[in-house]
Specification:
The protein is built from 21 helices and 16 strands. The protein is of the alpha/beta class and 478 residues long. A five-stranded parallel beta sheet has the order 3-2-1-4-16, sandwiched between helices. The chain has a five-stranded parallel beta sheet with strand order 6-14-7-8-9. The protein is globular, with a radius of gyration of 23 Å. 41% of the residues are buried. The protein binds flavin-adenine dinucleotide and iron/sulfur cluster (SF4). Iron/sulfur cluster (SF4) binds next to helix 8 and helix 10.
C-alpha cells in the first residue's frame, strides 16, 4: 500500500506539467537547465527593469543589493555578483532556497506588480552562491588580526552562526554552544531536506569551523554548563536559542499514542536523512509510512509536516485548519505545492478530541465558520453546532506553533528580562539585553520568525558586540 502510494506520488510529480512549468518559471537553474544554467540565469536576471525604485531591496530584511547583482549576473560577471551578494547576506544560498520570497523581495518586484511575473530573485541568489561554492570562491574566514577577547554564542541556528561569522572576521575568539549534536538549529533539524538540502548547511558549518569558530555540541546550557560559568569565561555572550516549546492540544484522548509534536516528527525525519539510527522512526512512532495522517495547524511547519508525510509514503494526508484558505498563516505557495502532491485540506475545522483505545484511531472534528472581525480586524472562527465528524487517523501531528522556553528559570539567572510572552527583551538596535555584555537575537527575541531575520539580527548583534568590546578595550588601555 505504501509502495503504491509512493509510486503514485512519484508519477504525479513526474507527470505534473503545471508544477514543472511553475518551477521552470521560478528557475532552479542548476537542476533544470544543467549546462545551460548560466545562460538561463542571465536571461532571468536580465528581466529586471532596473526600475530605480527597488521595492525588492527595501522588502528584503537584509536590504540585499538585488538590482546590482541581477545586472552583474545578466552580464555574466558571476564572481562580482557573488561578492556583492555575500556582502550583505551571510548565507545567500540558504535564503535563496527558503525565504518566503512571495512575501518579501519577489512579492514587491515591480514586474510582478505589473502582471508579468516576478524576476526569480531567490533562485538567482541561490544560483550565484552555489556557483561560488563550485568554483571555490567561498573561503574560510581569515581575520586580518587576532583579538584576545572571546565571545560565547549560545545556539547554533542561523542567528548565532551569522553573528559567529562576523565576530570571527573581526578577529575575536568565538565559541558556539548547542545542545544538539549538529550545528544549524532549525536549518538542520526543523526545515525538511526537500526544501533545504542538508549538505548546504553542513558545508557552511565546516567553513566556520575551518575559519576558527569553535563548536561545543551536545552541550545544553543550563544543564551541562551554567549560564553564569559562560559569562565568567567569555567577554560577551550572545543568546540565540530559538523557540522550542510546542503549543499543545487538550481534549478527550489527547494523551493517546500516535499523537505527536511536529518538531519531534520533523527532527526524526531529518535525522534519518543524515543516516542516523532513529529508534522512534524505526518503531513507526514518528514515521508516516502506510498510515492515515492528520496534521493540525495552518502554518509553514504544518506544511512541512504534510509534505514530509507524503514523501514517507502515508496512505493519506489531511490538514485541519480552523480558518479558511485566505486566512491561513502559511505560504500560499507551500499550500499549492502540498495540494499538487496529494494533501487534502479541511478548511474551517478544529479538533475537539481524539478517539481510540491505546493508540489514536481518529480525530473528533468540529466544523467552524468565520464570525465577526476581532479588534485586529481578523475574523474569529466559531463553531457550527452539531456538525462534528470523526476523521480516521493513525498518526496525528500537532503543528500549532512554538513558544519560548523560560530561560531565566531554566538558566537560574536573575536580571535577564523577558516579555510577557517569554521572549528575551533586547534593544531593537543594539540587541543588548538587560544584562551587561549579554546580547540576544533571532526567534528567542522575535518569537517564531524567519531565517533571514535571524541572520540580520546576528549580523547587527555582532556589530554591537564589536563596539562593546572595543569600548572595553579602550577603557582598559586608559
Ligand atoms: C518546521 C519549520 C520550518 C521552517 N521553515 C522556514 C522556512 O522555510 N523559511 C524561513 O525563513 N524560516 C523557516 N522557519 C523558521 C526558521 O527556521 C527560524 O526562524 C530560524 O531558524 C530562527 O533562527 P534562530 O537562530 O533564532 O534559532 P534556531 O534555528 O531555532 O536555533 C537555535 C539553536 O539553539 C539551540 N539551543 C536552544 N536552547 C539551548 C540551550 N539551552 N543550550 C544550548 N543550545 C540551545 C538549539 O538546539 C538550536 O540549535 C521554519 C521553522 C520551523 C520550525
Ligand atoms: S534574502 Fe530572502 S528576501 Fe532577501 S533577496 Fe534573498 S530571498 Fe529575497
Amino acid at each position: 500500500m505504501a509502495e503504491q502510494r509512493m509510486l503514485k506520488f512519484v508519477k504525479v510529480a513526474r507527470d505534473m506539467p503545471s508544477k514543472r512549468q511553475a518551477e521552470e518559471r521560478r528557475g532552479d537553474f542548476h537542476e533544470i537547465y544543467r549546462e545551460f544554467a548560466e545562460a538561463k540565469a542571465a536571461e532571468q536576471a536580465s528581466r529586471c527593469s532596473q526600475c530605480g525604485v527597488p521595492y525588492c531591496q527595501s522588502h528584503c530584511p537584509l536590504h540585499n543589493n538585488i538590482p546590482d547583482w541581477l545586472k552583474l549576473t545578466a552580464e555574466g560577471r558571476l564572481r562580482e555578483a557573488y561578492e556583492l551578494s555575500q556582502a550583505t547576506n551571510t548565507f545567500p544560498e540558504i535564503c535563496g532556497r527558503i525565504c518566503p520570497q512571495d512575501r518579501l523581495c519577489e512579492g514587491n518586484c515591480v514586474i510582478e506588480q505589473s502582471g508579468h511575473g516576478t524576476v526569480t530573485i531567490g533562485a538567482i541568489e541561490k544560483y550565484i552562491t552555489d556557483t561560488a561554492w563550485e568554483e571555490g570562491w567561498v573561503l574560510p574566514v581569515t581575520p586580518l588580526a587576532e583579538r584576545e577577547e572571546s565571545v560565547g554564542v549560545i545556539g547554533a541556528g542561523p542567528g548565532g552562526l551569522a553573528a559567529a561569522d562576523a565576530l570571527r572576521k573581526a578577529g575575536f575568539r568565538v565559541t558556539v554552544y548547542d545542545r544538539h549534536d549538529r550545528s544549524g538549529g532549525l536549518l538542520v533539524y526543523g526545515i525538511p531536506g526537500f526544501k533545504l538540502e542538508k549538505e548546504v548547511v553542513v558545508r557552511r558549518n565546516k567553513q566556520l569551523a575551518d575559519g576558527g569558530v569553535e563548536f561545543v555540541l551536545n552541550c545544553d546550557v543550563g544543564k551541562d554548563v551554567s549560564f553564569a560559568d559562560l559569562r565568567q569565561k567569555h567577554d560577551a555572550i550572545l543568546i540565540a536559542t530559538g523557540v522550542y516549546k510546542s503549543r499543545d492540544l487538550g481534549g478527550p484522548g489527547s494523551g493517546l499514542k500516535g499523537i505527536v509534536r511536529a518538531i519531534d516528527y520533523l527532527t526524526a525525519s531529518n535525522r534519518k536523512s543524515f543516516g542516523d539510527d532513529v529508534p522512534e522512526f524505526a518503531s513507526g512512532e514518528l514515521n508516516a509510512e502506510g498510515r492515515r495522517v492528520v496534521v493540525i495547524g495552518g502554518g509553514d511547519t504544518a506544511m512541512d509536516c504534510v509534505r514530509t508525510a507524503i514523501r514517507q509514503g502515508a496512505t493519506s494526508v489531511k490538514c485541519l485548519y480552523r480558518r479558511d484558505r485566505a486566512n491561513m498563516p502559511g505560504s500560499q505557495r507551500e499550500v499549492a505545492n502540498a495540494e499538487e502532491e496529494g494533501v487534502e485540506f479541511a478548511w474551517l475545522t478544529a479538533p475537539k478530541g481524539f478517539t481510540g483505545e491505546e493508540a489514536v484511531a481518529g480525530v473528533r472534528v468540529g466544523r467552524m465558520r468565520l464570525g465577526a472581525p476581532d479588534a485586529s480586524g481578523r475574523q474569529s472562527p466559531e463553531e457550527i453546532p452539531d456538525a462534528d465528524y470523526t476523521e480516521p487517523a493513525e498518526l496525528v501531528i500537532k503543528a500549532l506553533g512554538f513558544e519560548p522556553e523560560e530561560l531565566p528559570r531554566l538558566w537560574d539567572v536573575d536580571g535577564l528580562e523577558v516579555t510577557r510572552w517569554g521572549t528575551v527583551k533586547a534593544d531593537f538596535m543594539t540587541k543588548q539585553t538587560s544584562l551587561e555584555g549579554v546580547f540576544a537575537v533571532g526567534d528567542i527575541v522575535r518569537g517564531a520568525s524567519l531565517v533571514v531575520w535571524a541572520i540580520r539580527d546576528g549580523r547587527e548583534a555582532a556589530d554591537s558586540i564589536i563596539a562593546h568590546l572595543n569600548a572595553q578595550a579602550s577603557i582598559a588601555a586608559e
